[in-house]
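Exercise 3.2. Students should predict the tertiary structure of the chain below and write it as structure tokens, then compare their answer with the key that follows.

Predict this chain's 3D structure.
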Amino acid sequence: MQKEAAELSSSTPQRGSGLRECARPLVEVYDTAMFDLDGVVYLGGEPVAGSSHHVARAAEAGMTLAFVTNNASRPPAEVAERLRRMGVACRPDDVVTSAQAAARLVATRVPAGSPVLVVGGRGLRAALAEHDLVGVTAMDDEPAAVVQGFDPDVGWRLLAEGTIAVAAGLPWIASNADATIPSVRGRVPGNGLLVEVIASATGKRPVVAGKPEPPLFEETLLRVGGERPLVVGDRLDTDIEGAVRCDADSLLVMTGVTDVAVLAAAEPGRRPSFVADDLAGLFTPHPEPTRTESESRCGDWAARVVTDGPDSRPVLQGTGSSADALRALATLCWQQQDREGVSWPAEAVDGAWRTALPTMAQPDQPLPWGS
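Answer key:
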């Protein structure tokens, strides 16, 4: 059953420009949750504390759940199995990958049964098979298109075949353009850098399927349905920007790569609708901060502009909820950016946050607060 729309006042910011108000818990307003995986459900191969519990609660509240990933290397069944091992109830049909979105784009460009050169791995080949397309690895197989996605075994020979095919004018679809991907040892090169190898050699650019581009979000709704989706992610440049571009609301959780200073510097088009410590934010109302020219307030927190000679900096004061503190500070910083055209330095934002930490009610798990 379709959920009611959030009651937004006439002063509520447009998507991507500032935080929005939701007077009721998000699970009561949105009918579909599009969960990013790394940084939201798990981090560095380990489950984020409480994530399985919160995901289960969202399902019990009636939300349709989709686990949406830019990673094209594994078929949905393998992703679902990994989530189940972490205690997250998940079926293969609940997982939507950029490989599936890329395969659908290929299928609109070539006839069924066509060979397609795969510069990637089994995730792409499985997705192509869903559309009666055949993955091949060489130009000698006379492919009708090229599809590219991350796989750790992609090497020079396969990149060379892809380069020759793209240079010959074949349609070129990339699963995503992420420059890096997380690993247990830190960030490592992602599909975006491999795409640049072929792009540099040919002077051409691919059509991209994954976040922040619309095709992956469209693929998700085709597969799981939903009238009022909520994108839940930890990255501004993929999850949040993608939601804005698809005219969907978004929840940023602070369990992944985005810290306070990064959020405070977010440009219009990469600002979330809502922000929370973690997935528990699905089950609470979200107040919109009140604003004046030099102050932003949320709950018991106030963020203010302090002028030191020709320079200014933010100050955060109050007690209680870390999420309210974050809302107040981010809103003030965005106002500064929109008014002055520049953001405060990260050290100024971090300084305001660290000063306020002693009076802040901390979440149950460590977060990248910059402390």
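Discussion points: The domain at 99-208 is CATH 3.40.50.1000 (Rossmann fold). The radius of gyration is 22 Å.
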